Amino acid sequence: MRLAVISFTGRGGQLNRFLCEKLNIHGHRTDGFEKRAGKAEAPLQPVEGSLREWTGRAFSEYDGLIFVGACGIAVRSIAPFVKDKFQDPAVVVIDEGAKFCISLLSGHVGCANELCSLVAGLAGAVPVISTATDVNGCFAVDVFARKNGLEILSRCLAKELSAAVLEGKQIPFFSTQPVEGELPKELILCETEEELRKHPGLKLAVSERRISVNSGGQEDILYLIPRTVTAGMGCRRGTEEAVLLRKLKNAFSDAGIFLQALEQVTTIELKQDEKGLHDLAEGLGVPFVWYTREQLLALPGEFSGSAFVKETVGIDCVCERAALKGSMERAEKGEADAREEGRLILNKQAGDGVTVAAAVRKTKLYFNRKENER
Fold first, then answer.
1. Fewest CB within 10 A of the end CB: N or C in the chain?
2. Taking every annotated instance into account, which residue ranges of this chain make up the domain Cobalamin biosynthesis central region (predicted)?
3. φ, ψ (nearest 5 deg) of residue 350
4. Interstrand relation of 151-152 and 221-225 (parallel, antiparallel or unpaired)
5. What distance in Å separates the CA atoms of residue 276 and residue 35, rounded to the nearest whole number?
């Protein structure tokens, strides 16, 4: 994490410098700041301007803020900038006597609870953590999602699930990805989608695509989405980004694949300079990868061939082969015991001069995963 520590007195400055040194040793990038009369003592940086101005900048530049001083100072400083727990940085407060360390803001998603425990341990303080799931020792869905790189599809359902857990209810759980570690007592493991569907009420699923359900809708499933899908694409020369995005969204939607599951866009080397594909990948925040004709032709299996495409680029099907190749390549870069060759989950979809296919790979997830294990 990129951290900022701020203090306001000479004694607080001593603790500030100590924390900066120790947090850097623990792998964090930590900057120390001092807001008080007189010159800041090196290596602490003086705060120019108001504390509110500094806090506003720090909110956007750092993953976590540590206030060495009174809790009231921290509350008044951060108040104008607080948005929600999915955007706010972690905020921790420790008194200058290092007696108590408080997780003040963004305890789960922002890692403030873990940061609070670390800072308290370094300084010999008592950690004060007040989030309900931590106090009651319960499964926290937002922590599980963050530590495994999963995106929470519905914040509303996430709140409902946390409330249900705190009420002592067990939540049916299904995952398309392998999960290691002891199953939390708050979850009921379902081996198949069919088993999950049999359970009434709120359910939890790790999946790259929607789970088909009986009539009644899917509003009772909280999805945690892994980035494990590769989109293979081909297009006519000069196809605009907007057209490509529309075709990609439509193809994914028809197949029930979440766009949030996309981890890369792939194609053939001949399309490596296609501006529309570059812009598409950049706009979606994913890599744009291309492969040679020989690499794609080397893939085993049957593909949706096109005589026109084969005559034009020397290969029967660009999108399916590119999707599968990209997915297999990402799987090979995964953990040794979690490797699995990619498989197609969306065959070629064509229209408006655009072709789209998709493949998915496996990635191992963990219960009780530590932050540095990712």
1. C
2. 139-214
3. -125, 145
4. antiparallel
5. 49
Write down all domains in the chain, each with its CATH number in brackets: 2-130 (3.40.50.11220), 141-226 (3.40.1390.40), 229-360 (3.30.420.180)
| Cα–Cα distances in angstroms (integers) from residue 66 to residues 4, 38, 161, 285, in the given order | 6, 21, 30, 30
Confidence category of residue 227, pLDDT binned at 50, 70, 90: very high
Question: What pTM was computed for the model?
Answer: 0.79
d(CA 213, CA 217): 7
161-202 pLDDT, tens per residue? 999 999 999 999 999 999 999 999 999 999 999 999 899 899
Six-digit token pair at 347?
């065959």
Q: What are phi and psi of 286, to 5 degrees?
A: -130, 160
Task: Pick the more confident residue, 301 or 186.
Answer: 186
**Cβ atoms 266, 233 nearer than 8 A:** yes
Between the alpha carbon of residue 306 and those of residues 303, 310, 317, 359, the distances in Å are: 9, 6, 6, 19
